[in-house]
Write a structure and sequence with these properties.
With about 450 residues, the protein is α/β, with parallel strands linked by helices. It has a domain of about 270 residues: Amidase signature (AS) domain (Amidase signature (AS) enzymes). The chain is built from 15 helices and eleven strands. Strands 1-3-2-4-6-5-10-11-9-7-8 form an eleven-stranded mixed sheet, sandwiched between helices. The longest helix has 22 residues. It is globular, with a radius of gyration of 21 Å. The chain starts with a helix and ends with a helix. Bound molecules: glutamine. GO terms for molecular function: ATP binding; glutaminyl-tRNA synthase (glutamine-hydrolyzing) activity; transferase activity. Heterotrimer of A, B and C subunits. Keywords: ATP-binding, Ligase, Nucleotide-binding, Protein biosynthesis, Transferase.
Length: about 450
C-alpha cells in the first residue's frame, strides 16, 4: 500500500522498477501461518526487502536498468536471493539504479529517474538510488544494494539511511551482474545499524560459486551492533577525506560525530593517507577497464536484446554494433570506450598498469593507518544531495562525489555509512562513513551503533 501511495505518478519516488506484490504477500502469509503454528523462524522472517535490479532473481525481471536486458528473466537466483528466500523474507520487488550501476545519481537509468524523498527535486544518489529511496520513503524497511565505488554508501548518505559495503568476499557476488569484478560487493541498506548487521548475517558467508568468496568472513555483526561501545577505541580522522571541498554543513555534522565518539570514550586522532588523492583517478581507469570486459557479453548473441542494422549486410559485427548502439546508454558507452582505450596495446602499462600500482599504494596507506587506529572515519560524501539534472552533462563533477567512498573498494575493506544529522544550509541528510580493516566488519557496526 505504501509503495502504491508514494512510488508512482509524475512526482512519485519511483524507487521500484518492478513490484513483486503477489509473491511477497504469499511469503508473508506463509510466515504468519508458520508463526501461528509456533514454528521457529529466522529473526528476519516476514520482514520485507527490496532488491537492487542488478541482482538476478528467478520469477522477477532483472534489467540492470538497461534497455539491453528489457524483458529478460534470469533462469536462476543469485546466492543472496537464495539466502533471503531461506530466511523467508518477502521480496517487495526490484529497485532502480544507474544503468549497470554506473553513476552517482540514478539519472542514468533507462527507465526514468528516482526522486529523493527528502526533496523530490533532488537526486537520491547512485547507483543504488532506488534501494536507498525505498528505505528512506518507508516503502521497504530493508534493501539490497551493490557497491563498486560507493553505490550503497553514497545513496545512503544523501537519503539519511544506513548502508554497508562489506569486506570484499564477505558476501557472494554470484548472480550480481558484474560491473567491475575486483571492486563489486553486495551489501545491506536499512534504517538502523542493527538492521544492517542482521541483514549482512543473512546474506554473508562462504559460497563455492564465487571464486573470490572468503572462507572465513567476519561473524558477530549483530552482537557488535547491539554492544555499541567505543570506550578505549582509537578512531582515525582521515585528513585527506574532509575539509577543503567539503560542504560546511557536512563538516559541522562530521565534527559533532567526533565529539559524540569522544564523549563515549574513544580517542580521536588524525591520520594521513597521502595516496588517496590518486584513488579517484585509479578507480576511473580500473573500473571502466573491468566493465568493458564484463559487458562484452551483451552483444545480442550471448546476452541482450538483439537489434538488427537497418541496412545490409547483416554481418555478425554489424549486428553486435547495432545491438550495443541501441541497447546501451551514454554513460555505459562512455565507460566502455574509456576501458577499452585504457586496456589497448601500447597504453596498457601507462594507464591500467599505473592505476593498479596506485591501488597498491592506497592499500598500503590503509595498512599504515590501521596500524595506528581501530577504525577510520570521514564524511561519506563531500556534499548533500544535489538537484536533479545539475551534473548530468558534467561526468567529471559527478565522479568527484565518490572521493571518500572509492578507497575502500580499491582496498577491499568494509565501509558503513549512517545518518549524521541534517546540514545547516539546506536541511538535507549528511552521511558519516566508518572504515575498518578487511574481515573486521564487526567494528564498523560496533562504532556505528554508538553514533546512531
Ligand atoms: N558512482 C560510482 C561510479 O559511477 C560508483 C558506482 C558503484 O558503486 N556501482 O562508478
Amino acid at each position: 500500500d505504501r509503495i502504491a501511495e508514494v512510488d508512482g505518478g509524475e512526482r512519485g519516488i519511483h524507487a521500484f522498477l518492478h513490484v513483486n506484490a503477489e509473491e511477497a504477500l504469499a511469503v508473508a502469509a506463509d510466515v504468519d501461518a508458520r508463526r501461528a503454528a509456533s514454528e521457529e523462524l529466522h529473526e528476519l522472517a516476514g520482514v520485507p526487502i527490496a532488491i537492487k535490479d542488478l541482482i538476478v532473481t528467478k520469477g522477477q525481471p532483472t534489467t540492470a536498468a538497461s534497455k539491453i536486458l528489457e524483458g529478460w528473466m534470469s533462469p536462476y537466483d543469485a546466492t543472496v536471493i537464495k539466502k533471503i528466500r531461506a530466511a523467508r523474507m518477502p521480496m517487495l520487488g526490484k529497485t532502480n539504479l544507474d544503468e549497470f550501476a554506473m553513476g552517482s545519481s540514478t539519472e542514468h537509468s533507462a527507465y526514468g529517474i528516482t526522486r529523493n524523498p527528502w526533496d523530490l527535486d533532488r537526486i537520491p544518489g547512485g547507483s543504488g538510488g532506488g534501494s536507498a529511496a525505498a528505505v528512506a520513503a518507508f516503502e521497504a524497511p530493508l534493501a539490497l544494494g551493490t557497491d563498486t565505488g560507493g553505490s550503497i554508501r553514497q545513496p545512503g548518505a544523501v537519503t539519511g539511511t544506513v548502508g554497508v559495503k562489506p569486506t570484499y568476499g564477505a558476501v557472494s557476488r554470484y548472480g550480481a551482474i558484474a560491473m567491475a569484478s575486483s571492486l563489486d560487493q553486495i551489501g545491506p541498506v536499512s534504517r538502523t545499524v542493527l538492521d544492517a548487521a542482521l541483514l549482512q548475517e543473512v546474506i554473508g558467508g562462504h559460497d563455492p560459486l564465487d571464486s573470490t568468496s572468503l572462507t572465513d568472513p567476519s561473524t558477530g555483526l549483530a552482537d557488535a551492533a547491539r554492544l555499541g561501545n567505543v570506550a578505549g577505541m582509537k578512531i582515525g580522522v582521515v585528513k585527506e577525506l574532509h575539509g577543503e571541498g567539503f560542504q560546511a554543513g557536512v563538516e559541522n555534522r562530521f565534527n559533532e560525530s567526533l565529539d559524540l565518539l569522544r564523549e563515549a570514550g574513544a580517542e580521536i586522532v588524525e591520520v594521513s593517507c597521502p595516496n588517496f588523492k590518486y584513488a579517484l583517478g585509479a578507480y576511473y581507469l580500473i573500473m571502466p577497464s573491468e566493465a568493458s570486459s564484463n559487458l562484452a557479453k551483451f552483444d545480442g548473441v550471448r546476452f541482450g536484446n538483439r537489434t538488427l542494422p537497418t541496412d545490409a549486410p547483416l554481418t555478425i559485427e554489424r549486428v553486435m554494433a547495432a545491438t550495443r548502439a541501441a541497447g546501451f546508454g551514454d554513460e555505459v558507452k562512455r565507460r566502455i570506450i574509456l576501458g577499452t582505450y585504457a586496456l589497448s596495446a601500447g597504453y596498457y602499462d601507462a594507464y591500467y598498469g599505473s592505476a593498479q600500482r596506485v591501488r597498491t599504494l592506497v592499500q598500503r596507506d590503509f595498512e599504515a593507518a590501521f596500524a595506528q587506529v581501530d577504525v577510520l572515519i570521514s564524511p561519506t560524501t563531500p556534499t548533500t544531495a544535489f538537484k536533479l539534472g545539475e551534473k548530468i552533462d558534467d561526468p567529471l563533477s559527478m565522479y568527484l562525489l565518490d572521493i571518500a567512498t572509492i578507497p575502500a573498494n580499491l582496498a577491499g575493506i568494509p565501509g558503513l555509512t549512517l545518518p549524521g544529522g541534517l546540514a545547516d544550509e539546506d536541511g538535507l541528510p549528511v552521511g558519516i562513513q566508518l572504515l575498518a580493516p578487511a574481515r573486521e566488519d564487526a567494528r564498523v557496526y560496533r562504532v556505528g551503533a554508538v553514533l546512531e
